[in-house]
Fold each of these.
Amino acid sequence: MNKPIDAALLQPAEAFTDYLKNTAARIDKVAEAKAQEDGARVGISRPHESAHLHVAGEATYIDDIPELAGTLHCALGLSPVANGRLTSVSLDAIRAMPGVVDVLTANDIPGTNDCGSIVHDDPILCAIEKHDDGSSWGDIRYIGQPVFAVIAETRDAARRAAARAKDALIIEAVPPVLTPQDAHARGQYVVPPIHVIRETNDGGARGAIDRAPHKLKATLDVGGQEQFYLEGQISYAIPKEGGAMHVYCSTQHPSEMQHLVAHALHLHANEVHVECRRMGGGFGGKESQSAIFACVASVAAHKLQRPVKLRLDRDDDFMITGRRHCFWYEYEVGYDDEGRVLGVEITMVSRAGHSADLSGPVMTRALCHFDNAYWLPDVAMHGFSGKTNTQSNTAFRGFGGPQGAIAIENILDTVARKLERDPLDVRRINFYGKTENNVTPYKQVVTDNIIHELVAQLEESSDYRARRAEIAGFNLKSEVLKRGIALAPLKFGISFNVKHFNQAGALVHVYTDGSILVNHGGTEMGQGLNTKVAQVVAHELGVNCESVRATATDTTKVANTSATAASTGADLNGKAAQDAARQIRERLAVCAAARHGGDAKDVRFANDKVEVNGRTLSFATVVGEAYLDRVQLWSDGFYATPGLSWDKEKMEGRPFFYFAYGAAVSEVIVDTLTGEWKLLRADILHDAGRSLNPAIDIGQIEGAFIQGMGWLTTEELVWHPQSGKLTTHAPSTYKIPTANDCPPVFNVKLFEGDNFEDSIHRSKAVGEPPLLLPFSVFFAIRDAVSAVADHKVDPPLRSPATSEAILAAITAVQA
Ligand code: MTE
Ligand code: LUZ
Ligand code: MOS
């Protein structure tokens, strides 16, 4: 009986190597070569623009920038207490330590002591202030909160000195509030509660649940997730003449960093210059939370008038910054005999941490994704962002969307088990219709629904039905090892759920030799944005991609940019760059027609050639002629997503330009004695519209799938229940997936179909939506666990489904 898992099943490394070799096979190379010959530069699988630099170790990250003479290094002194009052800070001993140049506190900040992105409730350094009752103290909110900054000759000296924080701080401690449930019970939130309610029938959700033939009431826990970008948070601030500041910052949001540094230094925005060539990953973790480091480095550089670098150690990164919100849900659902949801009421409580950060918009997106791909006639949703004595949670790939959607998926999975139906059938019966039953709870009409055909294709290509039958046969004979399978669909709204963020700018320069430089407001974090934008520019000007170079995101080039987030990087900046390139092309056409005859409208640009009035000239020749004719060879471009609206009071409107869709089938095997499991096979069909770059999009899908699988399985965050210290603050205790966790059979395909909306070349955003695909892994594990009791008991599996959680669910099912 106690048979170990087949070693071959647990050793996918070789299979993974084979899979990598075959990656190219999934791209239609013939069709792409033909398109390229015809002049297309989009829809082509090109390598990441920096791939050769990444693999050679030559790509410059902030810490690789040659340091200026006189550069100092910073480390932060952190609170060892989760909740309390800071009454005294004694820094003399730290100042006297070797190599220490200065120790800064909140008093050294010349401007505002705040780095909050939307709500101004985020102090840069904890300040002792006079309170109404005459007492003086600083508000200590979590273990890891920065209280002071050590500036030293070396990074090592700074870190050694900062580590003495415990001896320097006197804090009157009180017990911390750590869980969302605890915060909810106390009614303490970082932003007011958010409600989305839609009543189609009498009595709304409540009435529908009461009248339904079946009812279900339950709770669910879903854990948070650390971004674990490989390049940690870092800023390098360099004082400039006249009090100005230049900051190299690993950030998804250079413009916000510019503004927050300006406020902290009491400068104008035009005196602060923020630059970022690339990040070694952001994943949402550098959307707002790069700010504290940019501000501290700048304050120090400003005071000492020397360059100051602040690069976090990994443990400090865990202790200081927030991550994906964990959610706790309590729901009641009414459904019919076939599993159709008639009414549902849900309360979601997130662990927001000590400040608002982006928790409000994250909760809004969670509520706007609870429907996922399903028509919910009567629904009442209540979102609470619990204020806790933990790091301030923030954006993470999906931005609350995954947390919202997993709740309805869990509900439908449970409904299917109660009715003893295949969960796929219950999911399908609830899908949005194409022409009716197609309005979301926030009243946006789903006009681009392709979930029916997408899921049908995947069901067939993955051989879902036959494999389910085969697995049932296997499980009958196998007592210890149980296999499970699940299909999970997704629908994900694309656009920032804050309307005015949906804008972008770009700058395109054509030099007289015909080479081109593009600069736009988006940031490169490995997702391939610069590659895609360069392709768009090359396509527009009819040149080879090699002629187009993208440069660092820079607040002095394109102003007032939005964060590169909400998966909108290519949608927004691609359109802005296209706008700029098109203007230059039109000017070149007018100039070429004037010189060579014919109509400017008929001038063709493709494959580095320009056809004008029956003649074929090189692109560089036409550019050279235009220069001599004094034609402007550079242009700005701008884009604002059309058609968006949002009524914040009613929580309704059209927050999303369009939806992206996808689905995955996963099969797992679980050892029911140890809780160990393995993903055996995953089949993915994902909608990237008419892909700008299939290779990069497939890479995004694979990465998101594996990253999301980590969230739902091995990545567990544990705060000590008394002290409130995050105990899982390094890779030794926090387990992210590796290449070996990829399934030996991993079929990833792009769904064929254009974006219905006029997006950039009819493509769709791809950064975040595929993070929902690994729901299929979680529900496959659930399926395997429920096989233990012959699918008669719905397994109470929490997320992350660690081996420990799986064993607990098995025990509960057996009881
Ligand atoms: N891919 C890589 N390699 N690194 C990243 O940090 N971030 C993700 C996604 N893919 C990320 C990534 C997140 S959270 C978002 S919002 C999008 O990329 C942002 O880029 P885009 O809008 O250009 O897709
Ligand atoms: N909304 C959203 C946001 O949908 N995604 C984001 O990343 C975001 N960031 C800030 C504010 N709203
Ligand atoms: Mo992504 S979470 O929108 O940075």
Note: Confidence is low (pLDDT under 50) at residues 1-5, 8-12.
Amino acid sequence: MEGKKVLLTDSLNSVKIVLVGTTHPGNIGAAARAMKNMGIKNLSLVQPKEFPSDVAIYRSKAAKDILENAQVFNNLEEAIFDCELVIGTSARGRKVPWPILNPKQAAEEVSRSSSHHNIAIIFGREDRGLTNEELGLCNLHVNIPTDPDYSSLNLAQAVQILVYEIRQAILGEQEDKNYWDVELANNDQTELLINHMDELMQQVEFYDVDNPRKLLLRVRRFFKRSRIDVMETNIFRGLFATIQKKLK
Ligand code: SAH
């Protein structure tokens, strides 16, 4: 359990949120709060209009530590120089097409890289977002899908959506790896199970062998989809073998 928590923290620590040219200190505070809620604590600010700021502290509530540890830079390149994955956020389509993802897809990319890379998620100015040059520094762009009539979210709310998805994706990935108590069946074990079930179905004349239609495909899809584990394959195969013995 402890080990799992360390893994989660390590992954979350590899992510930094970069706010570029923020005008309203309240948004910086609210972004810090959003980050702390999701366990992401590295905040970098590029040319904030007003920082440090009492308004920012007030809006951060219990996330004052994130503001105190925030790093301030003169330009974006300095803020992201050590990052291998850089993701820019944008409320609208830009002239230059770029790989563009929704927050969930972007979070999956982050989660895949988070154990071995530094990652930056960049947010733009309240009035005009990121410049094309700044977006050009990014590997990927993220757009939060909205009503087309009003696509621009409040800065801190956009941060909230991204950090929420990142936390969920990292947790999900770790659970995928750790949550099961028995090893998953490998391809060969699953094939043996499917063949065994087919053998039994033929023995009890469950289907017309000359015309199986999609039956075997559906059985196969069921077992593949369920990502069956070794103990489960043993239970099914034990049952099939017992029925076969009784049939004799
Ligand atoms: N008019 C600006 C909107 C700026 S909103 C623009 O066209 O980009 C301030 C910041 O919040 C944006 O730079 C972006 O980082 C984030 N943001 C707001 N709405 C967003 C959306 N729908 N998708 C992605 N990021 C968004």
Note: Residues 155-178 form the longest helix (24 residues).
